[in-house]
Structure to design on (257 residues):
């Protein structure tokens, strides 16, 4: 593989994230994404081209590597850590999502309700067998999660809008990364993913989004996303029991029920 000169003169390579399915490296001002499944990269490139909000510039693609220009600014935060971003930055992220959700639909569908319901069944059963989360906490969250499994009008969703995927500079969104799960979907799933573990910023996000939002459905997606994520995190070498992460979210949800 020929590496372009734009990244040939560097002294350090930063591993941003790495697991069995993909890895992301930062080399100078370039992010290199390596994905074993090129269909994910196909979706990412197409989604970024369609999105009416800032995204990284595609520098080149040489499968299995996708090279993206680094974005200015800093991430909105990280799951499990307090966010230092001002309320206006969170509101700007909400406004960006509203713009995305108002855009024309991408041509490919997202997960169906039946598929989500089946996945919820499997993941809850695995969590109970593994003992990672107490059975009563799983039961509480499963009841909450089922509220999200209702018909919705599909919109253009990012699909994995973790706060570490949103870059801001002051109160401006400078770009959003990691579009491989973009698809037609429920707009409230994006808002829930953005505020997972940072529920205190939900009001700011909704203010920026600028329309009525069903908070019960967002809470349901917090439970559903966390239940779906526990096994994947364990099997890929991450710890879902870290403070502020998925298991904490499940425990908090059960306390609020």
């Amino acid at each position: 593989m020929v590496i372009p000169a734009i990244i040939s003169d560097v002294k350090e390579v930063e591993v941003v994230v790495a697991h069995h399915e993909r890895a992301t490296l930062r080399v100078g001002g370039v992010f290199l994404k390596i994905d074993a499944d090129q269909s994910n990269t196909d979706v990412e490139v197409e989604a970024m081209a369609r999105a009416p909000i800032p995204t990284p510039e595609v520098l080149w693609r040489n499968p299995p590597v996708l090279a993206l220009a680094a974005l200015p600014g800093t991430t909105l935060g990280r799951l499990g850590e307090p966010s230092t971003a001002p309320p206006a930055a969170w509101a700007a992220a909400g406004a960006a999502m509203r713009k995305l959700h108002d855009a024309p639909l991408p041509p490919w569908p997202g997960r169906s309700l039946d598929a989500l319901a089946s996945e919820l069944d499997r993941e809850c059963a695995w969590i109970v067998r593994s003992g990672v989360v107490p059975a009563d906490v799983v039961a509480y969250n499963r009841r909450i999660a089922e509220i999200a499994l209702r018909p919705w009008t599909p919109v253009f969703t990012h699909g994995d809008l973790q706060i570490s995927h949103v870059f801001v500079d002051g109160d401006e969104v400078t770009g959003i990364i990691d579009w491989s799960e973009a698809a037609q979907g429920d707009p409230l799933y994006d808002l829930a993913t953005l505020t997972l573990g940072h529920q205190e910023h939900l009001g700011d996000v909704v203010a920026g989004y600028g329309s009525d939002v069903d908070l019960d459905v967002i809470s349901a997606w917090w439970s559903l996303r966390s239940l779906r994520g526990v096994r994947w995190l364990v099997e890929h070498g991450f710890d879902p029991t870290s403070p502020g992460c998925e298991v904490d979210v499940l425990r908090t949800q059960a306390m609020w029920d």
